[in-house]
Amino acid sequence: MNCRRLVPGLVASAILSVLPCGLLSQNKSDRQCSVANMSVSLTGNTDFQQSIGNLTFEMKPLKQSSGWMLSFEDANGHDLICPVNNPIRTCEEEQVGAGYGETAKQALSHGRELRFLLSTADYDRFEPYVERALAHSTEAESIKAGEEYFNQNDNLRTGLLRVTIIRADVSETDEVRSADLKIEFVAPARFPFAAVLRAKKTACPELTLPIDERIVSRVPAPNARAYRNVRDAADWMNPYLVITAEGFDLRFQGGQIHGPLSILRRTVAGLPTSVWPYGRVIAGSENGVRGLGTTEILDKNKEEAEKILRELGLTVEWWPSA
Questions:
Q1: What does pTM read for this prediction?
Q2: What does DSSP say about strands 176-188 and 200-203: parallel, antiparallel, or unpaired?
Q3: Which among 3, 38, 247, 303 could disulfide-bond with 260, CB atoms 3.0 to 4.6 Å apart, if both were Cys?
Q4: Residue 306 backbone class (left: φ over 0; alpha: ψ -120 to 50; beta: rest)
């Protein structure tokens, strides 16, 4: 399967649920990465190709407009960027040039950060989920396929491609004459970078880690001394979770998000580091007095929420309902 050739699209409204799963046999304790850099100078009608190990990085001139299309390809010609970067129907995040609502000048005014699969084996294991997400089906089947795709995607260990536009010469007719770029590849330390790239050790970017490791990678352990005297939710500075019969209501500095428990993992993992001044601890409670028929639902939702939060590496402080 080559994502670039697929026409059907992943339903934009697919529910973003995340369930504990393990598509790939990846080492959760391996958070050490390597980084390699290169400078690339291109004129508008030239391409670029560089082996970085078991993959080949390419920049090919766009056929219908001005600019380039990025790709990481394995020995079988599979593009390993598109499957893990939405929208997977168009692969538009790989385009550095005119198209998808941007002029060439606009497209070359900002860089790119793109995840990529690490090997043909990873591609082969993930490809069925991409195929099902892109296939024509009923609404119920599309939602289920979308859930499965996002579940697996969030649990992948990937590499990260960073493209920085140093200089771009674009004509008044929006034709790219030339561009100078800085290309950076980040991958787990076990990734076989080509020796010529002289890769150096670095901390793994959060985007490359499975979702259950992301908070742990950037937020320190709980500092109980900082919050042990807090007795009122109004004084609590870390995120605060309210369990409801419908799912959850998450409150944090400057914001509030509510939804079904199927999106709790992704929602909490996506909160910025600044909302965790106490470290990796979250407080929570139930929504008010239990009514007829809600006790079992609230118990089940609380149990599921606690499991998700602990898998994210969080300490959970349950408070009495208001």
A1: 0.81
A2: unpaired
A3: 247
A4: alpha
